[in-house]
Design a protein that fits this description.
Helix content: over 70%
Order of helices and strands: HHHHHHHH
Shape: globular
Radius of gyration: 18 Å
Number of strands: 0
Strand content: under 5%
Number of helices: 8
Structural class: mainly alpha
Amino acid sequence: MLSAKSLFQEILDHDESFRLFCSIAASGESQGGWENARIATLVPPSERALAPKITRHGADEDKHGRIFNALMRKRGLEPVPVPPDTDYTMLLEKHGIGLAHEKLQSDEPLTVHDIVTYLAHSRVTEQRASEQMELLRKHFADHPDLGRAVRMISADEDNHLAYCHEELLRFARAGHGRAIQRTLRECALAEIRVYRDVSLAVMAHMGRILGWSRAKSAVLAAGIHAVYAYERAAGWRRMVSLKPPERRDALGGPATSAPEFA
């Protein structure tokens, strides 16, 4: 019987599929680290107080990238190039979601609208990240090799999501409510399409590595399409709601260091 746990266990047990999984994850986290670092540098003067939190966000993402690379090194594996059709962060940018890299590579200060856009994009993508890590934590929190990494990354993603809620609510109170809701909706609808396409691509690559039958691949693809159908109909709404988080000032302190993997 196919399940999330059995599927991931199969990927985990094979060196090549595990290497691809970690390479994709490390690349995305490192990209997120760079983006947040640039945003922190370019924050407009009126929002300089937000810069340390954005820096912390980026430092966490960098840490996650190092963790995935360390997991590979522990098994004597080196990263592989990320297939373009599995590059979640770059595909989101291609669809106009978030701040364009061209803008982040310049030295022109960002606007308050840019910061609102960044936070709305992060609120949507961190929802996805938090849910994915919660699933891994459910099944692998006690795994001898992955458990510590899964628990740490999951806690960080929950903090990132709380931070996005808190800051977006602050901007909404300052009069940006309509822009926030419009941007959140656009981001969510684009994200679920990109997530579907990336999921199909990742499963296709994993299927080739692991020698899955056509029937198994078809079942997995059908499941991905079913998730997309649900998200397109109603599930996207969970990505656009805002509420005060249980943990306030979740990114108010320094980033924690990455654990060592012997």
